[in-house]
Amino acid sequence: MRTLQAVVAAPTLGVLVVGIGLGLAWAAGAGRAEHPVPDVAAAPAQVCARHSLYAPLASTRLRVPYATARPGQALPPCAPTAPATPQATAVTATAATPGTDPAPTATADMTTGTPGQPPFTETPGGPPTATGSPPATATSVPPQAGDLFGVQVFEADLEAIRHGRLDGAGASWVRARVLWAAVEPRDTDPPTRNWTMSDAVVGAAAQRGLKIVLNVYHNPDWAASTVCGPVDRVPLERFEAFVRDVVERYDGDGVNDAPGSPRVDHYEFYNEPDFDREARAAHPEFGDPVDGYGGCFGPQAGAYADVLRTAHRATKSVDPSAGVVFGAVAYDRFYDNDAFTPRGPFRYGFVRDVLLRSHERYGHEPGWPFFDWMAFHNYNDFRNNWDGADGRAPEIIGKAAHLRSNQLVAPGLFDLSAMPLVNTEVGLASGPSDAWTERSETYQAAYVGQVFSRAMAAGLGLAVWYTAQDYASGACDNPYDWLAVGLLRSTWVAERAAACTPSPLPGYEVTEPHQPKLAHRAFAAAAAVLGAATYDRRLTVAETGAFVIEAHRVTLADGRAALVAFTDHGDRLGRRGAINVAADLTVGPVNLPGWTGRARVTSYLGEAVAVGGPTVTVPLTFAPTYIEVLP
Hints:
With 631 residues, the protein is α/β, with parallel strands linked by helices. The chain is built from 13 helices and 21 strands. It has 2 domains: 4-28 and 84-113 and 549-629, no CATH class; 149-526, Alpha-Beta Barrel (TIM Barrel), CATH 3.20.20.80. Helix content is 21%, strand content 18%. The longest helix has 18 residues, at 301-318. It is globular. The two termini are 24 Å apart.
């Protein structure tokens, strides 16, 4: 008998080895500065460097989940921790039986370093009545296989886009933005608009062949009393006119287009509109910016229903095939639902309230519910809210299911649970660590494959990693000002961290522009296997041999079967006190259809080896491993 060994890297973070068949109990629940906007044409770098309105937009993942407040951050102008040493383990394959052709042998080094729904509270205006509304239909192209992998970009990422850092890693989408206040800072007749920054980013992405979701937000002060909420100082038709001009500029038809005639595929209106300014004002300990993160319609669901209807009408009148996206909700840190922790300034029933108000007012109109994709955000810090009683719907899977069943359905009125669902922000910081959470590039890189495979399992058509580059800095002694969420390291962040003693990001060095982190390699590895795949199903415990193994089966574009597998201790990655576990997965004809006796095993960082035998035993850790049947 011969034993085939191939070295497979595992992260050096401590692990608990779990034998086949051993179960494990799941752990319990564990700014923008307001500055004037330029009104003259200027080079993108000049505009960006002078005006912090273009600073990258912080969002809920920057709220520390188990401590309080953080002050405002210093953020980079938009002009253009060291990796852990890997620890080797082994993949073994059983030898061929006598009288049969032995499987090919090889040795290769692979360095890798739901809570229940509470009683629903209606907004003022009385309960809606059933009106026999037309069926909801999406008028844009639904997400397709190969559309899953996206990245959030800001103006500071312009050169990274141009240099192919994103499409080169397998991204097919970017989520960019256009700020109304930046484009049209003053109320003039006719309108005077400066498209410099949005043209630059949209054009660069289109030139690289990337599809674009364009997030429209930030009201000018002449149009609204807040930057993030209802348009209440001018008729809503002024917003409609702006949206029409945005869509005309980016519809790619050659008429009144931006330079190069780039095309935007989908438009998303406001960001985290479920934010409630009043709740934030009443609870300064939440630590969030007073104007939220690009949206603050929380208690004014009817106003957002009006905005969405107006935006939909404007978009479709110019480009009927362009998609409209319901502004992605945080759907976490609720102030009005104690079944979820921690508390924060977001309204639990916001989505359902918007749909109720919209149905009441406009349910009889063609085009209702006035969006093609429903969007939400997901961050690993809050996963214990969504795993369910037995942990079998982990993190983004459980959150998506909860949103569908608790927010998109009103019995007797509407059922929108089948609407395409996308995630326009997902991510994990690589540092700095704190008393509650260990953060590292290894954990961040491992999360990439975990969350994208789970997004497939949740039936999501798109998941957008937040962000392309690191951008956050601030007070040297406040770790939450420095959360490094990007796929790429930033020279700007490195310089500011080096000016602190001690550095808030030990080992953070940049030797080349837009330097890839381990997460960038992990993104490329995940996209290479999953990018054109279709989801099959999650393997059962009987098929994996251990409760701690999470394994998802997909079908590749050429019809071959593949698995993405990892261990899961049932808590957020890096939680102090949680024990990382390791277990062996036996792969063969029982759990991988079309088994040929040969497979490619690829680490979470993209290093691959071919193995063979009647079955193959693959050691797993929290860092995903990809296993494909070979011809």
